[in-house]
Amino acid sequence: MAEQLPIQFEYKIQQTFDNFFPGANQEVVTHLQNAIEQHQEQFIFLWGSNGVGKTHLLNACCQLAHESLLTTFSYSFTDHQLPTVRLLDGLESIDLVCFDNIDTLAGNAEWELALFNFFNRHRDQDRQLIVTSSTPPNYLTIELSDLKTRLNWGLTLKLEALTDHDSLAALNFRANLLGFRLSKEVGQYLITRYARDLPSLWALLDSLDQASLAAKRKLTIPFLRQFLTSRAFESSESAVIQEPLNH
């Protein structure tokens, strides 16, 4: 029987190293770039709190590897439902494999054993593996001791959360990429009254850019207040509509 080839899950090609704001994480970014370009590390464990950019950097690694004519595979695990372990079939032949949210596999005996076996097969072929987690490898609640040992091999990198100053700089960085200027007052308003994690801030900035263009208005604090009030109202209406009736 011919070897089963893995499904090529798409990574987000718009998330690259060029449009990642590093803040205090420039050294981590440099390590990742060198690892891909110079094949310096077989295994990298990237960890940090939610919203610091782990997924973005995984996508950036895949994009860089693709540009270097390497084969890539990326998959993001979630708490909702784990895929079958057959996801790993044939992945040992892929140059760069990236697994996001590896901590969600902890405690699942079938997945822990499957990942341990894949780790060994992939490493034996001198391929590269990058995984992310919200905790360092020593704090993972992995029950298979041999897998936990493997996850402590290689290079462990921590992503630091952005400070308020970094968050403001990140918003300006994103605004420049979108082609408009963000005033200091608007930026400060956003980081003091909205979610601090970068993905949420950048998603909001994208929505604000589209809304201001549609309304043909500048992105000012009065417009921002109007936009956020309208969005909060729409969210509350949706919650009311979706709320089940008690009989």
Describe the structure.
By secondary structure, the protein is α/β, with parallel strands linked by helices. The protein folds into 2 domains: 23-158, P-loop containing nucleotide triphosphate hydrolases (Rossmann fold, 3-Layer(aba) Sandwich), CATH 3.40.50.300; 164-241, Helicase, Ruva Protein, domain 3 (Orthogonal Bundle). It has helices spanning 26-38, 54-67, 109-124, 145-150, 164-178, 184-193, 198-215, 221-242, and strands at residues 43-47, 72-76, 96-100, 128-133, 155-158. Strands 2-3-4-1-5 form a 5-stranded parallel β-sheet, with helices on both faces. Helix 1 (26-38) runs parallel beside helix 2 (54-67) and helix 5 (164-178) packs across helix 6.
Secondary-structure topology with pairs:
Layout: H1 26-38, E1 43-47, H2 54-67, E2 72-76, E3 96-100, H3 109-124, E4 128-133, H4 145-150, E5 155-158, H5 164-178, H6 184-193, H7 198-215, H8 221-242
Count of folded domains: 2
Tell me the quaternary state: single chain
Mean pLDDT, as a whole number?
86
Shape annotation: elongated
The helix-strand sequence is HEHEEHEHEHHHH
Helix content: 40-55%
Radius of gyration: 21 Å
Uncertain segments = 1-11, 233-247
CATH architecture of the largest domain: 3-Layer(aba) Sandwich
For the largest beta sheet, what order do the strands appear in spatially? Answer: 2-3-4-1-5
- How many helices in DSSP terms? 8
CATH evolutionary superfamily of the largest domain: P-loop containing nucleotide triphosphate hydrolases
CATH class of the largest domain: Alpha Beta
- Which structural class do the helices and strands define? alpha/beta
Total DSSP E strands: 5
Major sheet: 5 strands, parallel
Cα distance spanning the termini: 57 Å
Strand content: 5-15%
CATH fold-level label of the largest domain? Rossmann fold
